[in-house]
Design goal:
Elements lengths: L1 H29 L6 H19 L2 H9 L7 H17 L4 H24 L2 H23 L7 H6 L8 H23 L13 H14 L9 E3 L5 E4 L2 E6 L6 H20 L15 H15 L3 H15 L7 H8 L13 H20 L7 H13 L25 H20 L3 H6 L4 H10 L9 H9 L6 H15 L2
Parallel strand pairs: 1-3
Antiparallel strand pairs: 2-3
Helix pairs in contact: 1-2, 1-3, 2-5, 5-6, 8-14, 8-20, 9-10, 10-11, 11-16, 12-13, 14-15, 14-16, 16-20
EC number: 3.4.17.19
Catalytic activity: Release of a C-terminal amino acid with broad specificity, except for -Pro
Protein name: Metal-dependent carboxypeptidase
């Protein structure tokens, strides 16, 4: 046990340093001066070099070899599973490469934001090519000695351990036909009335902060700020979220905030016994996304909760042109063609992700060159959505993920939706009066169930096992598809 204690003490310091690096990233996206980007890149590279040296320290290998895992409890065995996996991956990546990736992706974020604002892909393309080159080099190192099918699979393990492109391709192939058929039926029907008018942005922020609290976000261990692309950051005792406001679209801010609150509550509700350990964060991005999506959609966009939210909207903005809670429910769930993934309705959201999944595999595996990406994106978008992309900021520059090298991340959004569909089915079976609670703005039955059955366990189990433990059955795409067809079939009469 002495070796295990030494390992835990060492790793706790590494986890603390990684949390500091995460705070630097949060600062960069919220309050850092624009002119500081180059220096921040150097800072991130320096800290990454320190972290990488700790993560490949030979003592880790000695401790791993010396520890008798048969003598450990469930926590200890799960701890060692994470440590072994991370050590095996980290020792494959040269320190030079890890530091350079940290530097380049930090700088790339600012250049992407400028290019997006200017609708100028050429401004970002050289930097993007460097990001892709570095990630391909990393993927080649990580793939060595494994059975990963390609470079993309090797990178995907950082976000969804145990998953593969082939398995996702099969799942997404089962999702697509029913999603497309449902969308086509809906778009052939009369659309409900949409929100219109101007909504004060300060009032939007006040409303969204209140909603974060309604869903259980602990402000004593977090805060809400604005960012270009909403995100959640941190774990344990410091978990921060961001949102964005648009005076013409308060629903964007509302549901971005509820979405990020789902991520944040997962982190805040992990057992404090796991603090600053490999178990003290969400087990995968797919499981993480299941929490944000079930908060945002199955709960936040439900007929019951929108009844409560309608009252909150009237209190905040007065008469905003929607004359009933039922009409507001339909407006919240309105299905319309659009370019932006984060603003997409539930029916079309996964089609955005499936498109990105295919394109990024081509980028990483070298069958799609960066110079050809805008044309490939626009052609695929027209084929999938029947709409011509009007400008690059509504096309391949809209998301921050690729610019900062997060290849392998996008499919976890749809995987999270599948998991959320399964969790929602199990939740409703266990909390039969859920709708009555939600209509009063009481989410504790739902959020408590998620906390007790999934969130508190953090990384104790593997990702898929985490969902199976919570649901009591193997995940599949069917609960999500059944939920979408029932909900939107009723709204649109199709």
């Amino acid at each position: 046990m002495a070796h295990f204690d030494d390992l835990m003490a060492y790793d706790r310091e590494t986890q603390a340093l990684a949390a500091i690096m995460g705070r630097l990233s949060w600062d960069q996206e919220t309050v850092m001066p624009r002119g500081a980007a180059e220096q921040r890149g150097e800072e991130m590279a320096a800290l990454e070099a320190v972290l990488h040296a700790r993560r490949v320290d030979p003592r880790l290998g000695d401790w791993i070899a010396a520890i008798d895992e048969a003598s450990l409890d469930d926590f200890g065995r799960a701890y060692m599973r994470h440590i072994r996996r991370d050590y095996a991956r980290n020792t494959k990546v040269p320190a030079r490469l890890a530091a350079e990736i940290a530097r380049v992706t930090s700088v790339a974020q600012g250049i992407w934001a400028e290019a997006r604002a200017r609708d100028d892909f050429a401004h970002f393309a050289p930097t993007f090519e460097e990001v892709v080159r570095l990630r391909r080099e990393e993927a080649a190192a990580l793939r060595e000695g494994t059975d990963h099918a390609d470079l993309w699979d090797a990178l995907h393990q950082d976000y969804e351990p145990g998953s593969s492109g082939a398995a996702l391709e099969a799942m997404f192939g089962a999702l697509r036909p029913r999603l497309v058929a449902l969308r086509d039926r809906i778009l052939g029907a009369e659309a409900p009335k949409a929100l219109s008018g101007s909504f004060d942005e300060d009032r939007q922020m006040a409303l969204t902060e209140g909603l974060a609290g309604v869903f259980g976000y602990d402000f004593s261990r977090g805060r809400i700020d604005k960012a270009v692309h909403p995100f959640s950051s941190g774990s344990g005792l410091d978990v921060r979220i961001t949102t964005r406001t648009n005076p013409e679209d308060p629903l964007n801010s509302i549901y971005s905030t509820i979405h990020e609150t789902g991520h944040a509550c997962y982190e805040q509700n992990i057992s404090p016994d796991y603090l600053l350990s490999p178990l003290g964060a969400g087990v995968s991005m797919g499981v993480h996304e299941s929490q944000s999506r079930i908060y945002e959609n199955q709960l936040g966009r439900s007929r019951a909760f929108t009844e409560y939210l309608y009252g909150q909207m009237r209190e905040t903005f007065g008469d905003f042109g929607i004359d009933s809670a039922e009409a507001f429910f339909a407006a919240v769930n309105r299905v319309t063609p659009g370019f932006i993934r984060t603003e997409a309705d539930e029916v079309q959201y996964n089609l955005h992700v499936l498109m990105r999944f295919d394109l990024e595999r081509e980028i990483v595996n070298g069958t799609l060159e960066i110079r050809d990406l805008p044309e490939a994106w626009d052609a695929r978008f027209a084929a999938d959505f029947g709409v011509t992309v009007d400008r690059i900021s509504n096309g391949c520059l809209q998301d921050v993920h690729w610019p900062v090298g997060l290849f392998g991340y996008f499919p976890t959004y749809s995987l999270g939706n599948v998991y959320a569909g399964c969790l929602h089915k199990a939740l409703r079976a266990d909390v039969p009066d859920l709708d009555a609670q939600l209509s009063r703005g009481d989410t504790t039955g739902a959020t408590g169930w998620l906390r007790d059955n999934l969130q508190q366990y953090g990384g104790l189990r593997a990702p898929r096992e985490t969902v199976v433990h919570a649901c009591g059955f193997e995940p599949s795409e069917l609960p999500l598809l059944d939920y979408l067809e029932e909900k939107f079939g009723a709204i649109y009469g199709v």
